[in-house]
Amino acid sequence: MEAGTLGAGQERSLGERLANLVNSVNDAPFGVKAAAGVLLLDLVLLLADRFPDSALEWVALVAIVAISIFALTALERRPALLAVVVLLNILAMLLMLHDLQSVSQRGINGLSLGAIYALGAVGLTLVYGILKLVNFAHGEFLTFGAYMAYLVNVTWGVPLIFGILFAIATTALLGVALEKLMWAPMRGRGAGMLQLVLMTIGLSFLLRYGIQFVWGTELRQLDVNVTDTVNFLDLRIGRTQLIVVVVGFVTLVATGLMLRMTLLGKRMRALSDDLELAEASGIDTSRVILWTWIFAAGLAGLAGVFAGAVTQLQPELGFELLLPIFAAVILGGIGNPFGALAAGVLLGIVIEWSTFFVTPGLKLAVGFVILIIVLIIRPEGILGRARTV
Amino acid sequence: MSDPLSAFHLAVSFSAFTDIDFWTSVGILAGTYAIFATGLQMNVGFTGIFNFGQVGFMAIGAYSMAILTAEHGVNFWLSLPISILIAIGFGLIIGLPSLRLRADYFAIATIAAAEAIRLVALNARDLTNGPQGIFGFDNSWNSVSDSIEEFIVDLGWTDVPSLFPLFLVTWVVAIVLIVGFSRIQRTPWGRVLRAIREDEDAARALGKNAFSYKLQSLAFAATTGALAGFVLALNLKFVVPDEFQPLVTFIGYVVLLLGGLANYWGVVVGSVILWTVLEGMRFVELPLSETKIAALRFMILGVVLIGLMAFRPQGAFGKREEMVLGD
User: Fold this and answer.
1) pLDDT tens across A221-244, in order?
2) Which residue of A126, A213, A300, B42 has the fewest CB atoms within a 10 Å radius of its CB?
3) Which of A63-72, B45-54, B216-225 has the lowest mean pLDDT?
4) ipTM of the complex
5) 3-state SS, residue B199
6) Do A192 and B327 touch (CB under 8 A)?
7) CA distance B203 to chain A (A)
8) How does DSSP classify residue A313?
């Protein structure tokens, strides 16, 4: 008997053994997985950069790894805090290998990029969560906002603040118009996911090349001072960039509070959770959907003006930001606006820090690789809840 | 001319319609996209997986061929099958993790993978020569092209357009692929793909490994993507990252939907219609600048895509009972 079962065990196929290996890794205690993850991450960072070259640095490295493992194990099952620990781990590693000046300089670039991602992602994730609409035209909302601000700020010569308000208002109006013209009728017909995705791609063509039709492909600049800098703790920060970071984060916090505290915010989250249940409990869903579009498109318009202010305007401005914004949406868990806010900022910082290891041209590719890795190991996102994915 | 609208009067120069060189190029373009979309048809129309990274396979095919031939002196004809294998390899690498995901995640993951490939091509200068691209991989092809041209001249047609041999080869490849894929679709293997499209759980309940079939379907798409990449490279005579924008995949979907889903010959119809209209527009003399006309073409493309999806989700010539996007 015993020999028989043993024999059967020995004849297991390679596939079964691999499956068993994967299972045993999955079943490992969290502490072991966390330790392995941190060791692997830090090894990759060292291989990509350089190894410690003094006793002090070796001590620092051991301390960083030990503290990270301890923090990760202590924070089991708090994915948001785990992500922060991983970020702090990377920060500590970079500070050990590079000077404070360059790490924080790129960190600030990352914050302004992250604010733009987060502002774009929060609206995209709400639309995605509530309407099940994967909106490839969301990037064009950013471009549209940027050009609206250009119209007011440069063509009409009015101060940029009015340009920003005009951009938010007109982009929100565009969102509402599209909801009325396209998405509400399509929902009424019970259109499927891919059908809607391809419609958003068509819409993205129409908007992007409509903007190209009117304004051409030449690079345009908003009337902002991009060379003026502010000195802060030995750091030279571009004034425009500082404004983007400050206004961006104030808006992000306000957005978060609005979603958390106000009735409208609660209703939006309820719809994102379960549209039918929300409808059954007496929420006027079409009203909330309209407000969601106002909100999503308005924030995208603001993000577009910011992106235009720190770089330059061209018709592909928003489309180039779309994939990282999608990455932030997925990292944050689809339909979770708080997740999108946090993931947008995290992604911005990580992408800018990645320029320590790769040429700046590849930094977006790093973002995509992170996206694909997250899709593989945690498709519900860092902050998402396990749903059917 | 007191007509106030005379400035906007449309003038069509008919002589241009007989410009054989121009229409040969358009024919190559249409053939390239027919090849490109044949694999998409297998994925979208017959397997129900929404591959948005097809241009990535095109990039891998074109770059592998160019790098092997121009940089490493590999025989051009040998580099083609190797490049197809590399593209299939990438298809497996991309498909293994992402095919397990929900359809919308898969779409985003594949588009991100294709963009990552383009960004690497743009930045890995040692391998791909960056934005300058790669030249000088087409000597073997040129001599074949010349002998085809001589053969045609011997037949009695003296002013053969220089791209005509490529036009012939492109369409031979396209037709062979389409006939082959249509046959494959009628085999038991092809019927399993359709079963997975209709009801994956039912197919699995019958003991079919749906994941493996989807992966194989993606490998076929990678093959046609690579073949389209070869034609593109020979047509342009260089390979640059800018040719592999996500836009190419989106145009592939327009081709697919114009022709109709779940019908391989549809991609020929779709591609010929699309490129005849888009390129034919060049002869409509609009009082607009070059950029505006270029923008206008893509705006029309967008309107076509929106209109098709709103009113004919099975594609312009698709059969409603076979495959409709939206269930």
Assistant:
1) 888 877 777 777 777 778 888 889
2) A213
3) A63-72
4) 0.87
5) coil
6) yes
7) 20
8) B
